[in-house]
Here is the input.
Amino acid sequence: MNEARTSGRSREALSSQSEQTRAALIRASLRLFGQKGFDGTSTRDIAAAANANIGSIAYHFGGKEGLRLACAGFIVDTVQRIAGPAIAAVPLGDGASGEAAAMAQIDAIVERMVGFIVAEPQAGEIVQFVLRELSHPTAALDAIYTGLFEPIHRRLCAIWAAATGEEAEAEETRLRVFAIIGQVIYFRIGREAVLRRMGWRSVGAAEAVRITSVVRENVHAIGTAIRGRSS
Amino acid sequence: MNEARTSGRSREALSSQSEQTRAALIRASLRLFGQKGFDGTSTRDIAAAANANIGSIAYHFGGKEGLRLACAGFIVDTVQRIAGPAIAAVPLGDGASGEAAAMAQIDAIVERMVGFIVAEPQAGEIVQFVLRELSHPTAALDAIYTGLFEPIHRRLCAIWAAATGEEAEAEETRLRVFAIIGQVIYFRIGREAVLRRMGWRSVGAAEAVRITSVVRENVHAIGTAIRGRSS
DNA sequence: GTCTATAAACAGATAGAC
DNA sequence: GTCTATCTGTTTATAGAC
Here is the structure.
């Protein structure tokens, strides 16, 4: 079996034609895998969409499966770059002022999450790709879980804990953060149903604002109720 | 093109071998479509799983596409039978007592939803199937949306309105009900991530109880906050 | 109604010319 | 590195035997 050129390549060659073809193939396959699924996408379609030839897939990635793994790597890099700053640790005070600051950070995160996941076109491909991987785990999911899901969820739990006084790694907290994420994700997954039920033609910036407003209110309500339990 | 035997069949022939083959094909294809996707599933696999032969698919459903539509019909029937009683209209009093009764019905619905969607094995196939249809709408989605999504969502909005005093068909209410559904659905869609993060080996009855507890608390918190706005 | 054989198209992988 | 030609296996659909 030929070894694909997936590692050890020099960083100076980023704009060589080889790297351009490589990048174009990843972009095209991420889009097509997201739209039509891994099995539903042929290597011929990918090559055509990337303006490359079929043989280049075997050359760069060893085969179709290698392309899937490369997509996972691209997703990890992309989302880390976008989500990283938003969920970075910010200095939080103690007691009530710390809780308020943490809740403000949660507000900002919800707004960014909705903006990216729901309204950003590129997020559609990524979410669909991840969704399919979740339903049929491969090595690509391992990369996405370890590089993205786990660290982000853990960080969100910590922020939620700072905002409510709950323990960050408590089972209840972890489940609650999943439920909160679900509120947002569903607007992408069930987009078609949302469009029909809301009578919207698309979900753009204006619709994202409406969704953000509702989700933020929900999250506040949950946080307030949790905080109120301990008093 | 041959017309498939998809309509006009007599109801008395339910246990004939023809109907048995037909039912077996639908069950098998729903499971396989859910697991591996429509494109990822071959008619040979379906026929083998249903203990039928390949030709019978063309005979009963006209082809693979007809099988997809038949799956959608099966889903509408199944979910209507399960969800129907739970969301049926119950006599609600006026004022505060009516709100409490409506919230109690919401509690019961959340519990049933989590129990079915998250813990019931058959729900996995159905959710995965619907999920894939949502991301790539065909005529099968039209059937599911019209027969299931729209009426159930509308009914949930009405119950939520009775519990909170909001207007049932207000944009905000419709979005809020979507967000609440998202909380539950995510535990099925993101099951693999949930399993890993929670350290669970599977999601059974015991885990469903934990999830129900968290989601119910969230929903109560949201409902209470909404009700509190008007005072 | 069921099952088999086969057709026609398409898949991914690969060898080799350039 | 790129591109073409081709191999091998698999796909859905269908015609026809039983």
In short: Residues 118 and 187 of chain A are 6 Å apart (CA to CA). The radius of gyration of chain A is 20 Å. Residues 2, 42-44, 54-55, 57-58, 63-64 of chain A lie near DNA strand C (CB under 10 Å from a C1').
